[in-house]
Amino acid sequence: MGHGASHWIMGTFFLLLPKIREEFGFSYAEISLIGTVFYVGSLASNVIGGPAVDMSGRRILFQIVSLLISGLALIGLGLSGNFYMIALMGILIAAANNLWHPAAMSFLSSEYPGNRAFVLSLHGIGSNIGEAIGPVAAGAILTWSAWGWQSGAYVNAIPALLMSVVFLVVLLPKDRPVAGVGRPGVDLSTYAVGLLRIVKDKAVLGLSMMAGFRSMAQSGLKLFLPFYIIDVLGLPYAYAGMALTALLLGGLVASPIAGAYADRIGRRRVLMMGLGSSTVVIIAMTFVGNGTAYVIGISLLGFTMFAVRPVIQGWMMDLVPRSMAGSAISLMFSIQAFKSAIVPIIGGVIADHYGLVAVFYFLGAVLLLANLVVFFLPKEETRAEAAD
Predict the structure, then answer these.
(1) Domains present along the chain, CATH in parentheses
(2) Each residue of 313-355: pLDDT tens digit?
């Protein structure tokens, strides 16, 4: 539920961007710059968040901070009156959203070492539900309410703020300063040695690079999909909200299936099937002009693209010691954020010069690169030291 509340905020942010562009008269390149600084916020949070979680061990506390900042920043977005304030609120939303992951994922990985991909897929269901419902709520407000896009920001901030109170009352008293194996927080010298070890690991870096390409495609899709539906297909904001919901619902159904199979038959096979299918579907969608058919196709794309997310995360947890799990997630998410920050710039330029359809061809090519990286990853999928 906490993960869902965090992604509810992020889904709302992306759906509000077309309305913000319309009200402020931004070009695609300008609104894409907001998307870029959003992922810069993600990158900064990942660089800091993982080490902070591993060295302090206070996972619940970091999740509360994540939810509070998310909700307050969305309210701040509604109060923003210029480009710079909108960009700043985007940075805060992204930073807060990514602060959640190292704390939550390292905790779940240590609790369920034999079913990591499956458990992380259940955790991912929360994000899919939140990121699916948030845009629907915002899209309904934008389409049928006379209150303006700001009201969508204010109303959709409520779930994150409520969940922060739940965590504060129910879970914070049980928060203990533990590292991956239950001992007190890692000291600086021990942490530095462990961090250097995972940074030099070719399998960890290769997996992170592959995850980065996949994240580029996912981030580009979430950013440009509402613009495509509204500006190219000429459909109302409610349709854009439904499309984003369909994207996430497809992933909601597929994630636990992919996670369970990855625990049984291996990470590589599931990843190659998912990424290969996503490449085909994302390009095929550019030939669909009917709004209802497009939403259905988007749900299929979500089924293939989002299914592999917990598989990647489970594979990463296989590769690293539990005491460094938070930092490994932060390393992977940092690379993802860096690559995602590039997509809005490239996509904005492509959209302004060649049209929005060309952006989706670019995203399909990026997914193809992700598939190629999987093919060259080392075959060993587990490490004995991950169980230390």
Answers:
(1) 2-172+185-374 (1.20.1250.20)
(2) 888 888 887 767 777 877 888 888 788 888 888 988 898 888 8
- Contact between 138 and 12 under an 8 Å Cβ cutoff? The reply is yes
CA 63 to chain centre: 16
Whether the Cβ atoms of residue 140 and residue 241 lie closer than 8 Å to each other:
yes
**Residue 178 structure tokens:** 């533990």
User: Which among 164, 285, 160, 159 has a CA at the least distance from the CA of 228?
Assistant: 285
The answer to whether residues 24 and 347 touch, using CB atoms and an 8 Å cutoff, is no
Going by C-alpha positions, the residue among 127, 105, 46, 118 that lies closest to residue 317 is 105
- Amino acid present at 306: F
CB-CB contact of 139 with 17 (8 Å): no
Q: What is the pTM assigned to this prediction?
A: 0.66
**Can you tell me which residue has the tokens 């407000």?**
141
CA distance 360 to 224: 9
